[in-house]
Design brief:
Helix 1 links the parallel strand 1 and strand 2. The chain starts with a strand and ends in a 7-residue tail after the last strand. The strands form four sheets. Strands 9, 10, 11, 12, 13, 14, 15, 16, 17 and 20 form a ten-stranded antiparallel beta sheet that branches. An eight-stranded parallel beta sheet has the order 4-3-2-1-8-7-6-5, covered by helices on one side. Helix 3 runs parallel beside helix 4 and helix 5 runs parallel beside helix 6. The chain is about 15% helix and about 40% strand. It is built from six helices and 22 strands. The protein is an alpha/beta fold.
Length: about 325
């Protein structure tokens, strides 16, 4: 998730309050104002004061790029966060630094600047440091930054078979976000193939819609997370960040509010994509749905051979949730 910090070294109580209320990650203030921020709410405070959560000059460095050596210094940082300035800014140095994975905060004063910084190289900087006195500008930047997720190239999975299997422990993921038509999560039996499991945002005659929930499948399955990571469903905990994806492959980050793990009858959904067989085990219930290419949800109990649903594939395997370049055969 992209970080948004507020530079409030010229103290502005209303702006700091706006930052706290809108999910800004940290506030940079003068020594004398650290206690004022902490009195307003829970937020990371950055300052050169000893009582700051992050120390300016130690944990956070302000570096002005004036030559190649400055650029190389930033790119070599492993723990520190760099607020990067430039007297004659061009896009090329920023691209070079981003490509090497440094934690870079780029100062911005408008939403247009923020959008450029946060999307360079289709990856963007680690975060932005907002310099504005306008609460509306701050809100707009936060809204954009926190809404950024991966743009995924979804594919059509062709259903081959739906097989009844034994009872299993299935996981419902309750998030802190209501999901809409066409939105759900990417879940799969294998680390390189994920089905778009639709949220329970659909009206039905059996239970009330729960648009904050995805009935995601058995405990062993993988879920796609932000930044290309994965976890087993059984590893998720309250407070973990997850990725919500729609039928267009657009995504945003939400947070797990609660998990419900219960024994239920299960189905193995078998499909084919690019001449490869993939599968996902889901609960055997009418209210559990995959997603058609149109975004329309389709119940797992109504799936038939030849039906097309949306999914996502990628090459390679996983080690502790990270992509690795290694030959791994999952079946």
């Amino acid at each position: 998730m992209k970080r948004v910090w507020l530079d409030c070294r010229n103290w502005n109580k209303d702006l700091v309050t706006t930052a706290i209320e809108n999910g800004v990650d940290a506030v940079l203030v003068a020594q004398a104002d650290v206690a004022k921020v902490k009195a307003l709410g829970l937020i990371t405070v950055v300052s050169d004061a000893e009582k700051a959560d992050l120390r300016l000059g130690k944990d956070v460095l302000e570096i002005t790029i004036s030559n190649k050596a400055d650029e190389e210094r930033i790119a070599s940082l492993t723990k520190e966060i760099a607020i990067v300035e430039s007297r004659d800014w061009t896009i090329i140095p920023l691209e070079n630094i981003i490509a090497q994975g440094a934690k870079v905060l780029f100062p911005v004063s408008s939403s247009e600047d923020a959008k450029v910084a946060l999307t360079i190289l289709e990856k963007g900087v680690w975060g932005v440091l907002v310099r504005t006195d306008n609460p509306a500008v701050l809100k707009e930047i936060v809204h954009f930054a926190k809404g950024i997720g991966s743009q995924l190239m979804l594919q059509e999975f062709v259903i081959k078979d739906v097989q009844k299997v034994s009872m299993g422990d299935r996981v419902c993921i309750d998030t802190i976000t209501d999901m809409n038509f066409g939105e759900g999560m990417l879940i799969g039996n294998y680390s390189n193939a994920f089905f778009l499991v639709h949220s329970e945002s659909v009206e039905n005659p059996y239970v009330e819609p729960r648009p904050f929930r995805v009935n995601a499948g058995a405990v062993h399955a993988y879920i796609m997370l932000p930044n290309g990571k994965t976890k087993y469903l059984d590893e998720l905990r309250t407070g973990d960040e997850i990725l919500v994806v729609n039928q267009k492959g657009e995504s945003f980050v939400s947070t797990v509010g609660r998990l419900k793990i219960e024994k239920r009858p299960m189905l193995n959904i078998v499909a084919e994509v690019q001449n490869k067989e993939v599968s996902l085990i889901l609960q055997n219930a009418e209210t559990i749905r995959l997603t058609k290419p149109s975004g329309e949800p389709i119940s797992v109990v109504k799936l038939t051979k030849g039906d097309k649903v949306l999914g996502y594939t990628e090459a390679g395997g996983r080690h502790f949730g990270f992509k690795i370049t290694e030959t791994i055969n999952e079946k």
